[in-house]
Design brief:
This protein is mainly α. Helices cover 81% and strands 0% of the residues. It has 3 helices and no strands. It is elongated, with a radius of gyration of 26 Å.
Length: 161
């Protein structure tokens, strides 16, 4: 009888140790997801700036370089398409990161509910999306792409003749 009680306490101790290690891993992953959003934004800003700069350079210099207007127009549109693809990829990575963050937070709550007690950590709510910085990063990217296409359609493309 005593051996069975001893095994049960060892099992509970092992379970708590495992839960603690899993909890540490989850917290580390949440931190990584948060850092990745900043990295993705930095990559987007760098690539978008470079591609828009190339488009402006093409617009300003196509006559001097002897490039036809149709090739210059296609080049500007091609660069805008590339910026849009980069934006789409960045938006996808940030959205997937936000979903991963939700999953990790729910798992964190599961562990704390079991080990510490129910309700120790409040579960994340989608209605709090207005307080997530990812929301504003995604809005920035979307607005910047719409602005680039609008500016190109109104000011740049009509002047390439």
């Amino acid at each position: 009888m005593e051996a069975q009680g001893h095994t049960s306490s060892e099992s509970a101790s092992t379970r708590k140790e495992f839960a603690l290690e899993r909890y540490r891993y989850i917290l580390q992953q949440i931190q990584v997801v948060n850092e990745n959003a900043h990295r993705f934004l930095a990559i987007y800003q760098t690539l978008a700036t470079s591609l828009v700069g190339a488009g402006i350079t093409l617009f300003v210099g196509y006559r001097r370089w002897g490039i036809s207007a149709s090739v210059a127009r296609d080049g500007v549109i091609g660069l805008l398409v590339l910026v849009t693809l980069v934006a789409g990829f960045t938006i996808t990575l940030i959205a997937v990161g936000a979903l991963a963050w939700l999953d990790y937070r729910n798992e964190e709550c599961d562990i704390t509910d079991e080990i510490v007690g129910p309700g120790f950590r409040q579960r994340p709510r989608l209605r709090n999306i207005s307080r997530w910085y990812e929301t504003y990063v995604l809005l920035f990217i979307l607005i910047s792409i719409v602005t680039l296409w609008t500016l190109a359609a109104v000011f740049v493309l009509p002047k390439i003749k």
